Structures are given as structure tokens and as C-alpha cells.
Amino acid sequence: MTHRPLGEPVRPVRPHPDEAHWNRPPEPGQVDPAVLAALLLRHGWQRRGGAAGRYGRWTPPGPAGAGTSLLVPESRAFPDSEDLLGEALLALARSGTPSAHEVLVGLSVPSDEIRWWRDIPPGPADTASWTAEDQLRTAARQTLLAAALATRARAGYHGARHRRPAAASLDSVLVGSGAGGQRLTAFVPVATGRPLAVRLHQALHAAREAIDYQRATGGMDAFDGAVEAGVSRELTEGLITLVRGTEGARIAVQWAPAAGVPGDCAGADPVEFSPGDLPVLREAGARYLRAEPSVPVRITGTVTRMRRSGPRGDGAVRLRVLAGAEVPFVRLTLDEEAYRIAGHAHLVGLPVRVHGRLESRGGFRRLTGAGGVVPVQVDEAERDRLMKSLQETAEITAFFEEAFGGD
Predict the structure, then answer these.
(1) Quick one: angle between helices 130-150 and 190-217, nearest 10?
(2) Contact (CB, 8 A) for 274 and 248
(3) How far apart are CA 147 and CA 151, in angstroms?
(4) How far is CA 295 from CA 76, 149, 299, in A?
(5) Facing residues of 321 across strands?
(6) 108-119: pLDDT as tens digits
(7) Chain centroid to CA 58: how far?
(8) Residue 403: what pLDDT?
(9) Which of 75-84, 107-116, 207-216, 254-263 has the lowest mean pLDDT?
(10) What angle do CA 401, 405, 407 make, to 5 degrees?
(11) What is the CATH number of domain 295-403?
(12) Extents of the domains making up the chain
């Protein structure tokens, strides 16, 4: 597995898996009228009268509202409430407005909504350049990934640590349609993703406060305390990507009406960032990178690659980590005897155990001061599984060439 550098574009947040099936609205019996009304209000729909205490008449935002309206019951206390809900849901499913689609997502999968806005000039007919659209989606994923990492550990710089499970936790996140590279919405299911949304909310406010403190006093101390709230180099990089090239940007976390607001996350106003914040964010990211210490570890892993310049002497080894560190691979340099032990262990299908310090430089991918290399005994079934796994990576050939003097 390889990892992209922080500045390199990453794959966008995945699209909704049922994009083609929104012609099938949720069942009326599964919809709470109060939740539907709250979602309509959140997405810009306006209530324009209706029978007080029975139903409200709602119209969509913008010019499209002139000829469209929904009758939404205020409760299920009246006999016609089920019919009104069914008609409202069907009208939303047939509507071509993005807000209707987002309301249906919120009803089908109770979700906290995370919104990103970028203040950039729109293109012709509200189009966006490829770069602007890609930058928005990249920034969105970087900030989500930073929050996912912070749910697993508090660190100023995570590097490769916890990256696989953090990235996997984003698989349940749904994404709405963008708006000309200016706006994007992600739906984080409450059942699986609320800790992520809470952490992002807290980290954004802590970052804003730390930036304000630095711009007022010149001191960076507030960023040290902000780590506990989830601020990290990964988050500052995401914010830099979001703000760069704009007149300003905002992020808001809005809580699922069906689940309510978490106790320590009052307020849903967007957190704003400006181009004037960029120097502070860059300085904070560099500070986190410098300050994060190396970590003493004892790693168990399988050898996937070996290399040295001649038949004798020190050699470089790459291990796939099985236990001892929250990274997928590490590289290390071994003396001649330890290199020989690692090679023999690999040839007979055994992992090795080694101790050293996991260095922050390079993203916690290198082990320095490596020593105490010993093979780890495993049962035959596990040995066969490890050998098969290594062969399937197609790196076994490179191993034989490099372990015995090939270049």
C-alpha cells in the first residue's frame, strides 16, 4: 500500500450508491413529519401558510418555488396525514432541485450534514473549472480524513498512522451534488459517523480560535492546546486547500434532526476562513510536523523487500506491519547479521520482530535504531497464509533479486 503526500490530490468523496434510485421515495410510514419540516427549512424551503396546527405549505428556494408546493402535516394526529406525507415525498422524488434530493437523503439515512463553501467567481451558466471542482472535493476529503484520524488518536501530525481504518470509516459517507465548485455537502450517517462529525465540529472551532489568537498576539501557543480538540497538520492542509484561490471559505456541521444535537456541540453556524489565515495555517502545519516526536515501538511484520548494494554489509528492509504500530509498512536499515536473519525468516515464511523508533519524518514510515531482529514462530496454516499473501503481491521476485545482490 502506498500513501499520497499531503499536497497531492486524493480521490474524491464517493458518490451516493443509490444515485439512480431516487424515483423511489421513503415510505410515508417511516417519516416523521417534524423531521421532514426541519429538513425542508434547513435546505432553504419556505413555509407559506397552511392550516394552523394541521399542515404547512412549503415552497422550494429560488425561482423554482413559484409553481411548486408541498403540503406537510405537522403531526400524525389527523387521518389524512399519511396521504399528505406520501404526496409530499413523491413530489420531492420527482423534483429536479438539488435541495429536494438532499432532503430525501436526510430522510432515508439519518445523517449529520457537513457543508463546504468556497467564495469563487462562477463560470458561464454557473459552471466551474475542473480545477475548482477538484480542489473543493479534495479539501472536503482532507478535512473529513483529518477528523477521522482524530477520532482514533490526538496528534499534531498523524502521518501514516491509523490511516487505513480512518479512510475506511469514510466509506459510509454520502456526498451530494456540488454547485459550480462553490458548494459541497456530505451526509455522515449518525449510526456510524457521529463521532467523526463531532470531532470535526470541535476541531474547526478550535482551529478558528487558535488562528484568531495568533493574529491578535503573534503567538502560536493556542495550536498546542487545539490538538486535543482534533486539530492537526492534516486538518490545516485541508483548510489550506479549501481556502487557497478564494475570497473566503466556510464549513458547517448541521446535526440530524432525528438524532438531535450532541451535548457539547451547541451552535451550527459556519466556521469561516479567509486568505489572511493561510500564513498562520501553514506555520501551524510546519510546527506540528516539527514537534511530533518519534515513537518507540516493537513491531512484528513480514519482509516484503530487501536491498543492499553488495553481497555483504548493511541492507534496507521493508516490512508489512502485522502488530506493534498503526501503519501498514515500515522501512528500516539492518546490519549484516540482522539482514541475514530477516532474509532467512522470509524464505521459510516467518514474520520477524524488531524494535526501534518510528520516526515522524516521512510520515512515520521509517524505523530508526532497529535491532533485536528475531523470527516469530507461527503455526503451519498461518505460515502458508503469509507466504501466499506475499506471493500475490508480486514482490517476491524483487526480493530474490535484491536480497542476493541484484540492483
Answers:
(1) 100
(2) yes
(3) 6
(4) 58, 17, 12
(5) 301
(6) 888 999 999 999
(7) 34
(8) 43
(9) 75-84
(10) 65
(11) 2.40.50.590
(12) 19-108, 111-291, 295-403
Beta bridge partners of 254: 113
What was the pLDDT predicted at 65?
Answer: 52
CA distance 169 to 327: 16
State pLDDT tens for residues 327-375: 999 999 999 999 999 998 888 888 999 999 999 888 899 999 999 999 9
Residue type, position 260, single letter: G
- The x, y and z cell numbers of residue 80, run together, are 389524512
CA dist 148 and 253 (Å) reads 15
Is 80 exceeded by the pLDDT of residue 404? no
Nearest Cα to 360, choosing from 268, 283, 293, 271?
A: 293
For residue 38 the three cell numbers come to 426541519
Name which residue leads in pLDDT, 67 or 275. 275
pLDDT at residue 275 greater than cutoff 90: yes
| Per-residue pLDDT tens over the stretch 6-44 | 444 444 444 444 443 444 667 888 888 889 999 998 888
From residue 302, how far is each of 8, 306, 341, 346, 378 by CA, in Å? 29, 11, 12, 7, 12
What predicted TM-score, i.e. pTM, was given to this entire model? 0.79
3-state secondary structure 235-289: HHHHHHHHHCCCCCEEEEEECCCCCCCCCCCCCCCCEEECHHHHHHHHHHHHHHH
Mean of the per-residue pLDDT values of the chain: 84
